[in-house]
């Protein structure tokens, strides 16, 4: 076929990948699995690939990052191909859209505005431009386009940042800490009622305000929790290793013994 040279050309670049996806989705000669997919079924893979990119970066595995970025790019091509089949838009439209957006949001680079401003001021300008874009798209509500599909911690952070732009925010960290105390008491009170829905509601409130504390401390709650997860894995693996050395395992050890090894791991760090 006329496209085979491109498909097998290692230097074919983006056109090669686009053509590969077109062939995979071809109703007559494509892959049955790929043909069956739609936006809803592919979306979870797109989210998963984004997390795998972040994981490769956190592990500083640059060879793996190269591959994971390719997998993430494939998701973009996949969605664009499905959209093209429905006459919604093409990959060219996607590229044009993001290129136009980057030029419009960087007038200090591509326009006549001065670059003589701080990164913080440039970030504020970026948000102002985004707010104008939302208004042009008739997104009137402050929270209208904070994506529902975001991970809960990230969405909480974005909701809070958006509300803070219009003044709905605490001015002092101590106010946030006081709110944490209040929500902790309310969670304890809900626990005593044994009402699962109430307990879940109050637990959610506590998580939400903890995200708010991270924001006021200029911390990324998602990054902070990933760090703690990694720390937990390291310390628990130390427990497993030490127990294995004496012919034991976590399932056989007492809580006191594992807690002692946990403290050892903590001190070693």
Features:
269 residues, mainly alpha, Helix Hairpins, 13 helices, 73% helix, globular
Outline the structure in words:
This protein is an all-alpha fold. Among the domains are: 4-104, Helix Hairpins (Orthogonal Bundle), CATH 1.10.287; 223-268, no CATH class. Helix content is 73%, strand content 0%. It contains 13 helices and no strands. The protein has helices at residues 4-7, 13-24, 32-36, 39-58, 62-85, 91-104, 107-110, 119-136, 152-165, 173-193, 196-216, 221-245, 255-268. Helix 4 (39-58) runs antiparallel to helix 5. The longest helix is centred in the C-terminal third of the chain and has 25 residues, at 221-245. It is globular and about 65 Å long. The model has no long low-confidence stretch (mean pLDDT 91).
Quick summary:
With 269 residues, this protein is an all-alpha fold. Among the domains are: 4-104, Orthogonal Bundle (Helix Hairpins), CATH 1.10.287; 223-268, no CATH class. The protein is 73% helix and 0% strand.
CATH H-level superfamily of the domain at 4-104? MazG-like
Structural class: mainly alpha
Distance between the termini: 60 Å
Main sheet: strands, sense, barrel: none
Helix content estimate = over 70%
Mean pLDDT: 91
Oligomeric state:
single chain
Number of helices: 13
Give the secondary structure arrangement, pairings included.
Elements lengths: L3 H4 L5 H12 L7 H5 L2 H20 L3 H24 L5 H14 L2 H4 L8 H18 L15 H14 L7 H21 L2 H21 L4 H25 L9 H14 L1
């Amino acid at each position: 076929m006329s496209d085979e040279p491109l498909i097998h050309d290692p230097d074919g670049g983006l056109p090669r990948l686009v053509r590969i996806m077109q062939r995979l989705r071809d109703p007559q000669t494509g892959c049955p699995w790929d043909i069956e997919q739609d936006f809803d079924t592919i979306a979870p893979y797109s989210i998963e690939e984004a997390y795998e990119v972040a994981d490769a970066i956190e592990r500083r595995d640059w060879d793996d990052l190269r591959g994971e970025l390719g997998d993430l790019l494939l998701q973009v091509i996949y969605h664009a191909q499905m959209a093209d089949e429905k006459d919604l838009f093409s990959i060219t439209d996607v590229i044009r859209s993001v290129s136009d957006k980057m030029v419009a949001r960087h007038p200090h680079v591509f326009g006549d505005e001065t670059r003589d401003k701080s990164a913080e001021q440039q970030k504020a300008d970026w948000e102002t431009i985004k707010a104008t874009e939302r208004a042009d798209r008739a997104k009137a509500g402050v929270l209208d386009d904070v994506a529902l599909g975001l991970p809960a911690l990230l969405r909480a952070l974005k909701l809070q940042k958006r509300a803070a732009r219009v003044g709905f925010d605490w001015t002092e960290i101590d106010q946030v800490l006081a709110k944490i105390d209040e929500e902790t008491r309310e969670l304890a009170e809900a626990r005593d009622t044994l009402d699962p829905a109430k307990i879940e509601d109050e637990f959610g409130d506590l998580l939400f305000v903890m995200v708010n504390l991270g924001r006021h401390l200029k911390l990324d709650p998602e990054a902070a929790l990933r760090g703690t997860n990694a720390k937990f894995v390291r310390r628990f693996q130390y427990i497993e290793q030490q127990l294995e050395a004496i012919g034991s395992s976590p399932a056989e050890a007492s809580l006191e013994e594992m807690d002692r090894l946990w403290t050892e791991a903590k001190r070693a760090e």
